[in-house]
Automatic annotation (TrEMBL):
One of its GO terms (biological process) is carbohydrate metabolic process. This is Ribulose-phosphate 3-epimerase. Pfam families: Ribul_P_3_epim. InterPro entries: Aldolase_TIM (IPR013785), Ribul_P_3_epim-like (IPR000056), RibuloseP-bd_barrel (IPR011060). The keyword Isomerase applies. The keyword Isomerase applies. It comes from the Eukaryota. One of its GO terms (molecular function) is racemase and epimerase activity, acting on carbohydrates and derivatives. Keywords: Isomerase, Metal-binding. PROSITE patterns: RIBUL_P_3_EPIMER_2.
Amino acid sequence: MNWVSPKHFVPNLTIGAPVIESLRKHTKAYLDCHLMVTNPSDYVEAFGKAGASGFTFHIEVARDNWKELIQNIKAKGMRPGVSLKPGTPVEDVFPLVEAETPVELVLVMTVEPGFGGQKFMPEMMDKVRTLRKKYQSLDIEVDGGLGPSTIDAAASAGANCIVAGSSVFGAPDPGQVISALRKSVEASQIKS
Ligand SMILES: O=C(CO)[C@@H](O)[C@H](O)COP(=O)(O)O
């Protein structure tokens, strides 16, 4: 794909706080917000007010301010999470999980963030296994290329929160795919 990253031109997001606010009027569901942005601090207040449940930022853009960011996310009533890109070592998020005010979720990207429909990277399961061994009760999320053919690898490595796009929205029966994903995670949790 020949795609060049644009510079920021406007401070708004296509699926930003107004979308969360609109959804919140119709559901009590957990709204898990993963902000793939360079300036997550700028969005905490708006997402909190809009009714987001979780706010996940990227470690790659928060190396200098993650402590304040986590505290701010919690102060605004959301669960803080941190995400890491495929090239980022898992050790980089340990301090955030072990902090006095810790993140409550780690999102291991299983594709390069940016586009749906990419191939799952099984080698990222080493990160998931490492996190699960070290932190038994941590929420570990995976995102990218998850579907019926890849869920068992992720679930058996220890992932318990699954983000799935193409496999669900491209299925003739999305509910059936969601059930299959859920079943695999539940079965792995019983075994461990
Ligand atoms: O936002 C991203 C990647 O940037 C992911 O959430 C993907 O969009 C998930 O989609 P599939 O890989 O399941 O199609």
